[in-house]
Design goal:
alpha/beta; TIM Barrel; four-stranded parallel sheet; three-stranded parallel sheet; 15 helices; 9 strands; EC 3.5.1.41; lipoprotein
């Protein structure tokens, strides 16, 4: 097992002490002790933003825009009257039992949770991205980051010269800003995964807007970049939510193959089940299922198990697919952010670069490397004021409010 992914739940409670000094992404990337990685720290721009109430409380679902957020209010006002008249569905925790009995079987809202619909019924909306057009290619990405203990995992990706698409939760970005900066430095693509990781179709229009808006603002504050893609937690999206996302410049990215890595320990899902889900994808690849259109798999940097499993399964995926690339690269998107100072290679350039540069086989890795997927000089963010239980530890201990994180 790679050292930084040791199960933090075995190490006991974290003491309420500030982390050893870290003021830059490069310093953070060199930390190898997972307890030190996940010790909260303060970093001034985020602390200042939190103190000024520029953001909602971290991990709290957004129900209304912040009173002093004139830019957010103006943007929402400009689109509110055109948002589709589709009612919210179920609860933020995903209980749709009072809604689905009367929901039409024709799925008029193109509700993914109901029927895995990816082709919007509403005119003017683009189809969701659930696969990649390049044959024998895997669109590679991870949800729920940035995880405070991800250095060993990101080191491994760097050693393999492998870039990925990282779907970041806004509250995690505020808690772990230097970790978010590392994704940019390493050449990964960052997309939005909402502020509080709840079922998006349950939100009001303003709440759904805020979940996306404040995650965009958090990523911009910390990295200097504004993503153009997002993934709904649990895949829960309909045409109302798609429209709101589209008005914020966000393309909806889903998947067709689920590793179910986040489910281990719940509903009788075992490690063997997850390994089999990976193997099913591999079997499909080797049998020719992706010879004309590639695939996207759902995986997570959620905790020790999900990251360790990704490392263990990577060589098998590499052998099964001709190419493993970030989703933007598979789409030939060379400018994945609103800002144009970060550029990615085209698909053909990326795979040519990988062929010319075999993975580093040496032990260990170094953070902060500029990757072939794109690089940027990120401006610092800050951890929010006040100490919190680190995300990874909370997941290991099953603490309320963190244990629900998943897709």
């Amino acid at each position: 097992m790679i050292p930084s992914l040791l199960l933090l739940g075995l190490l006991g409670p974290v003491l309420p002490a500030l982390a050893q000094s870290r003021t830059s992404e490069a310093q953070e990337a060199q930390i190898s002790d997972p307890v030190q990685e996940c010790t909260p720290y303060s970093y001034s721009p985020v602390a200042a933003a939190v103190a000024s109430s520029a953001f909602p409380p971290i991990w709290t679902p957004v129900t209304a825009l912040q009173p002093n957020d004139s830019a957010g209010k103006a943007k929402f006002a400009s689109i509110n009257s055109s948002i589709p008249n589709i009612s919210p569905k179920g609860t933020m925790a995903g209980d749709f039992s009072n809604f689905t009995p009367t929901y039409p079987a024709t799925d008029p809202d193109c509700w993914w949770t109901f029927h895995q619909c990816v082709d919007p019924k509403l005119s003017g909306l683009q189809p969701d991205i659930a696969s990649v057009s390049e044959p024998k290619t895997l669109g590679y990405g991870f949800d729920d980051g940035p995880n405070c203990s991800h250095n060993a995992f990101y080191d491994y990706l760097t050693e393999q010269d492998q870039k990925a698409t990282m779907f970041y939760i806004g509250s995690n970005v505020m808690d772990w800003p230097l970790e978010a900066q590392r994704a940019v430095s390493d050449g990964h693509q960052i997309c939005v995964h909402t502020w509080s990781h709840r079922y998006m179709t349950s939100f009001s229009n303003e709440g759904a807007f805020g979940e996306l808006w404040y995650t965009l603002q958090a990523i911009k504050l910390v990295t200097g970049l504004t993503p153009t893609c997002w993934r709904p937690p649990f895949g829960d999206v309909d045409d109302r939510i798609r429209y709101i996302a589209s008005q914020l410049g966000l393309e909806t990215i889903l998947w067709k193959f689920d590793s179910n890595d986040w489910k281990v320990g719940t509903n009788n899902v075992t490690v063997a089940d997850v390994q089999q889900d990976y193997q099913n994808l591999i079997n499909n690849a080797t049998s020719g299922a992706f010879d004309t259109v590639g695939a996207i798999i759902l995986t997570h940097e959620l905790n020790n198990f999900t990251m360790q499993t990704a490392v263990e399964m990577y060589p098998k995926l590499k052998a099964a697919f001709d190419h493993i690339v970030p989703i933007a690269v598979a789409q030939n998107i060379t400018t994945p952010y609103v800002e144009k100072n970060v550029t990615f290679q085209t698909f053909s350039q990326y795979i040519a670069n990988q062929s010319a540069s075999p993975p580093n086989s040496s032990d260990g890795g170094s953070g902060g490397s500029s990757g072939s997927g794109g690089s940027s000089q990120s401006q610092g963010g800050s951890a929010a004021a006040g100490l919190r239980v680190p995300t990874t530890l909370a997941l290991a201990l099953g603490l309320a409010g963190f244990g629900m994180l998943a897709l």
